[in-house]
Specification:
By secondary structure, this protein is of the alpha+beta class. About 60% of the residues lie in helices and about 20% in strands. It contains four helices and three strands; from the N terminus they run H-H-E-E-H-H-E. It has a three-stranded mixed beta sheet with strand order 1-2-3. Strand 1 and strand 2 form a beta hairpin. The longest helix is centred in the N-terminal third of the chain and has 24 residues. The relative contact order is 0.15.
């Protein structure tokens, strides 16, 4: 077995996939959304395919709410699969 296969099996067995995806999502968010949006991002959680994003600015919340589908597509493209099914902005 290759090291890659062993690590993949370990991640699947230990159910770390969602935690690893959340870490990757945070990195992608910082990289793709830029400094300004990151300053207003208070918190981010990923559970059962849903990405919960807490934003401090009401106007930015509204702007991002129009872009939910775009955010889902961007995240899934970066993660290499259909992990994010819904984005909830609060």
């Amino acid at each position: 077995h290759s090291l890659k296969d062993v690590l993949k099996d370990m991640v699947d067995t230990m159910k770390w996939k969602e935690h690893l995806n959340e870490t990757k999502i945070r990195e992608v968010w910082k990289e793709k959304m830029g400094t300004t949006i990151n300053q207003y991002t208070k918190d981010m959680n990923f559970r059962k395919g849903k990405l919960f994003i807490s934003i401090n600015s009401a106007s930015l919340k509204q702007e991002l709410s129009y872009e939910k589908e775009k955010i889902v597509k961007m995240m899934n493209a970066e993660l290499g699969g259909s992990y994010v099914t819904e984005v909830l902005i609060r």
